[in-house]
Amino acid sequence: LDATTELRVCAANVLRITKWPSAAAKAKGRISLVAKTEWPETKFQVFESSEEIKVTTSDVSFTFTKATGANSFGTSSQVILEDAGHSFIATEDMGKASHQV
């Protein structure tokens, strides 16, 4: 989606959004809380305008606003989650550099 946000369509009802504090942090890898790494092929559509990117499956949709990074996740009838933005705070976790959101 952009240098710090990645979207993966795992299933018609599962979208995985990963966010990093910077493009440089993305290159260092990530901690995954999702045990499953292999997913069946899922049909989805991508709609892009100058303002946003929208990804839809048969069950859910995700909208990413380019200018702000704000995003929302929902169904055709309701918004389930909206993220207007957040900040990352540098910290250490188990002796390794990390971030809190």
3D structure, described in words:
The chain is globular. Helix content is about 5%, strand content about 45%. The longest helix is centred in the N-terminal third of the chain and has 5 residues, at about 25. The chain has one helix at about 25, and strands at about 5-10, 15-20, 45-50, 50-55, 60-65, 70-75, 80-85, 90-95, 95-100. The chain is mainly beta and about 100 residues long. The strands form three sheets. It has a five-stranded antiparallel sheet, with no helix packed on it. Strands 1-2 form a two-stranded antiparallel sheet.
Short recap of the structure:
This protein has 101 residues and is mainly beta. 5% of the residues lie in helices and 46% in strands.
Shape, principal axes of CA atoms: globular
Topology as a string of helices (H) and strands (E): EEHEEEEEEE
What spatial order of strands do you see in the largest sheet? Answer: 3-4-5-6-7
How many helical stretches? 1
Q: What's the overall average pLDDT, rounded? A: 84
Percent range of helical residues: under 10%
| Strand element count | 9
Main beta-sheet strand count, sense and barrel state: 5 strands, antiparallel
Structural class determined from secondary elements? mainly beta
Radius of gyration: 15 Å
Low-pLDDT stretches are: none
Distance between the termini: 19 Å
The portion of residues forming beta strands comes to over 45%
